[in-house]
Specification:
heterodimer, A: 372 residues, alpha/beta, Rossmann fold, 2 domains, elongated, B: 72 residues, six-stranded mixed beta sheet, 6 strands
């Protein structure tokens, strides 16, 4: 007959054996199924992010539909047309032979922009130009969010289908940045709807100060220019036409000034918003050399071509901001940089040119809410 | 710079922060600046209200957002 002491000893050894078995079993399970477990955990993480992206995509689409209904005041439902826009694709030219590719890209993007504007005008026939431009911008935001959602979903489903841990982990690693950009886009919708200047509009704001009380002429598509005088120099100031949400064609405008109007420029000064690095302060101002302009690269190419051909030095003044700040309502820290930018422009003109010289000042960026 | 008392600025949410958006109207004659809440239709270089000091037509010179300060 077993004694009480023997029983507890037997019970204790059973528990420890059981724990040993569980430990060995879990070791075996993790060796064999470890990757599948990780795929499951990572997949859940991406799935949550994907749901957030879907909510943002749906919200931007709804905002676009509401804007068209509210502005167009027509009984026709614009949703079908807007859904067509969201699926609209731009096929970039082949780059096997890169010679002349910039011209091809420019042609394709111009055709796309013309098509979108034409369709928007058809849907909003009696709307003011500013509302047409806002509608274009909102459509672009909705289209970008739609594309981001589609691409993330594609890689998520592909990773799950092929049980590819590496693919899913790569997607998980870039998700914070993807969500940050998507957040910036969805926050930009309200700013555009209200027609408020965005952080990217600091260049046009600076240029508009020099254009006050002087005649303006359209120099390129959605781009205006004024000729004024600054301390004995002739100053050619250009910006995108506001208060519409346009970025204009500053590359073509600068090329026209130099090659068609035959104006022998002595300097080009470009003012633009620039993405700050983490740790940099919003509204910090940096000076530099080279064409300060973003976008697909066609304007930058034109400016570099014409300035190098005619040996015109290009100076850049950059106002730092985050992606969120660049596409949402202008922050006070960014407008506070205006005084510093004006001082730098004055210093550049006085130090790098002499009286009688001709200087071109280009305010680069979206002109929403910034007239001239 | 004077501050117009009404209307109350509409708050906008950006990320986790809330902002009030203001329009600055500046008198080209006397330099008087007035800060008021942004209204739809405002844009930089647009004519504003008459100057409270000299009666000239002001110009909108700035539109910007400031974070909402929480009162304790």
């Amino acid at each position: 007959m077993p004694t009480l002491a023997n029983m507890s000893l037997q019970f204790g050894s059973d528990v420890s054996s059981l724990l040993n078995i569980v430990w060995l079993l879990s070791f075996f399970v993790f060796i064999v199924y470890g990757q599948r477990i990780q795929v499951y955990i990572v997949g859940n993480d991406i799935s949550r992010a994907l749901n957030r992206l879907k909510l943002m995509k749906d919200k931007s689409r709804k905002e676009a539909v509401d804007y068209f209904v509210g502005t167009g005041k027509t009984s026709a439902d614009p949703a079908v047309k807007i859904d067509e826009f969201l699926e609209y694709v731009t096929i970039m030219p082949v780059d096997l032979d890169p010679q002349g590719i910039v011209g091809k890209i420019e042609h394709i993007t111009e055709t796309r922009d013309e098509r979108v504007r034409g369709e928007v005008k058809k849907m909003l026939p009696n709307a003011e130009p500013i509302k047409v431009s806002v509608a274009e911008n909102i459509l672009e935001i909705a289209s970008s969010l739609n594309m981001i959602h589609k691409i993330v979903r594609h890689y998520y489903l592909l990773g799950k289908k092929t049980n590819s841990y590496i693919l899913l982990v790569q997607l998980q690693m870039i998700m914070p940045q993807v969500l940050m950009e998507a957040d910036a886009l969805i926050n930009a919708v309200d700013t555009f709807k209200l027609g408020q200047p965005v952080g990217d509009g600091i260049g046009p704001i600076i240029a508009s100060k020099y254009m006050a009380n002087v005649p303006k002429q359209v120099i390129a598509k959605d781009t205006v220019m004024s000729v004024t005088e600054y301390k004995g120099r002739t100053l050619y100031v250009l910006k995108a036409e506001g208060p519409m949400g346009y970025v204009g064609e500053p590359g073509l405008a600068i090329q026209k000034v130099i090659e068609e109007m035959n104006i022998p420029l002595n300097a080009i000064i470009m003012v633009d918003a620039a993405l700050k690095l983490e740790g940099e302060k919003t509204g910090d101002v940096a000076e530099g050399i080279g064409a300060a302009i973003g976008g697909i690269g066609t304007d930058k190419f034109r400016i570099e071509e014409v300035s190098s051909k005619h040996k015109v030095p290009v100076y850049a003044i950059l106002v730092k901001q985050s992606i969120l700040e660049a596409i949402t309502v202008m922050r006070k820290e960014i407008t506070d940089a205006s005084d510093r930018v004006h001082t730098l422009i004055g210093n550049l003109i006085e130090e790098k040119t002499k009286e009688g010289d001709k200087v071109l000042l280009a305010g680069i960026g979206n002109s929403l809410g910034v007239g001239q | 710079m004077s501050t117009a008392p009404a209307p109350q600025p509409q708050q906008t949410q950006q990320g986790k922060s809330k902002f009030n958006v203001y329009t600055i109207e500046e008198c080209p004659a006397c330099g008087q600046k007035t800060k008021r809440a942004f209204q739809v239709g405002d844009y930089i270089t647009k004519d504003g209200a008459n100057c409270s000091k000299c009666g000239n037509v002001t110009k909108m010179t700035l539109i910007y957002a400031e974070p909402v300060v929480k009162s304790k």
